[in-house]
């Protein structure tokens, strides 16, 4: 049995069906990220686990115990919110210790735990300050300290870094992961930032409209997306997608110059297919594989990111340009407004069924 088992949870707000038959299992000690667009149900699912929301059907099991109807404060679960939710009139020390005092933990034990947590999170020098005298990063550290001090079975984070500037987010992201490595408390972390999800999660649960799109390691979601939604959501810039059609045994786009002869294509004959390629699998250099395909396209725009650059190229008959990642040193080889050859290894071209939006296979399997 898993450490956390969410079984077929259905949640409504009035007549709005928010979580739809949602199931998921989490192993002890894992760091799980809930990822999805705004309004997809991430916070609602987290609040269901915390006991802050009632559900219509389904169950929540924690460490073998059914906690579906258990009061939040009896669940042994600690939550950290985006808004920090610190008590403004209490100093840092009291903010951290308040919950323990209410639970009747002996004074010496409280002092020890607060001191350990303050050491670990490097907030010892602020213990006497009130929250308004702290920076955003320091406040978030106090909020984390307040959760850690309870020594919970499960940690829940709801977008804890959203109010911080970009640099501090990266630092705190690192600290939260380090904290998890040392404490090994099973954690669930909600974000809509896919970089955060990819860098922090042992596994990612990608949700859309209250349904699980895919649950797996960051590598699985990135390299083996099960449908168009996952392929498009994970990766920045997004995976390039073109609409194509398989007529007889030829895959063709609306653009006359792109036609690929297929074999073994009985199962996908006469279908509309979405072809997906990530920018890093396209190159201005040959891949030197037998199945290298090449296209001649016009350069629309260049975006420099330091170590590498993105080149955007016009695709005849498509309103969206395609992105190609190039080494910064290759930038001088391409000029905006000119045509250039683009090479792609057929091993890295994904095929999706336009109708069902499901992944069919890699193009290489069909040529
Ligand atoms: N108290 C409520 N009453 C009615 N509808 C609600 C309530 N809380 C949330 N919702 C709706 O439920 C859906 C899911 O909301 P939720 O807060 O879980 O999304 P989210 O994935 O956390 O989004 P975000 O990334 O913006 O925080 C949204 O459509 C939202 O409008
Ligand atoms: Mg939310």
Can you offer a commentary on this structure?
This protein has 367 residues and is of the alpha+beta class. The protein has 2 domains: 4-231, 3-Layer(aba) Sandwich (Rossmann fold), CATH 3.40.50; 237-366, Nucleic acid-binding proteins (OB fold (Dihydrolipoamide Acetyltransferase, E2P), Beta Barrel). The chain has 8 helices and 21 strands. It has helices at residues 42-50, 92-102, 107-120, 136-148, 166-183, 194-200, 218-223, 228-233; strands at residues 4-13, 16-26, 31-35, 57-62, 65-66, 77-80, 154-158, 186-191, 203-208, 211-216, 240-247, 250-252, 259-261, 272-277, 282-283, 292-304, 308-314, 322-327, 339-345, 350-353, 359-362. The chain has a 6-stranded mixed sheet with strand order 6-7-8-3-9-10, sandwiched between helices. The chain is elongated, with a radius of gyration of 25 Å. The chain binds adenosine-5'-triphosphate (ATP) and magnesium ion. Magnesium ion binds at residues 42-43.
